[in-house]
UniProtKB/TrEMBL annotation:
This is HTH cro/C1-type domain-containing protein. Keywords: DNA-binding. Residues 11-21 have a biased composition (Basic and acidic residues). Residues 1-21 are annotated as: Disordered. It comes from Planctobacterium marinum.
């Protein structure tokens, strides 16, 4: 028997294939564009190496919880927001890998 809560909300039709930027693109647009600090200075403020920061800026580093906290400390954008950007990008990247929808309730 299908639980009643399954039918209480409308299905959303927002496509996961809509482009979602990498967190590094968000960082460049919302943060780097508004400061005149150089990359090594920002890396030092975050407590990471310049190389690791460069890899993030170039889209080669995923945002982990620890990294999100470091971004939060220098950007005043919450760690939760950085993790959300990463999750949305991951969903976008894997949208073509989704299995067909099948209900487990019926």
């Amino acid at each position: 028997m299908t639980p009643s809560f399954v039918f209480q909300s409308d299905a959303t039709d927002r496509s996961e294939s809509l482009y979602r930027p990498k967190p590094s693109d968000v960082f460049k647009r919302r943060c780097l564009s508004k400061t005149d600090k150089k990359h090594p200075e920002i890396a030092e403020l975050m407590g990471i190496s310049a190389k690791h920061f460069s890899r993030f800026i170039n889209g080669h580093v995923r945002v982990s919880i620890e990294f999100a906290r470091k971004l939060e400390s220098v950007t005043n954008i919450s760690a939760g927001a950085w993790l959300h950007y990463q999750m949305q990008y991951d969903l976008y990247e894997t949208a073509d890998d989704v299995l067909p929808k099948r209900s487990m309730f019926g």
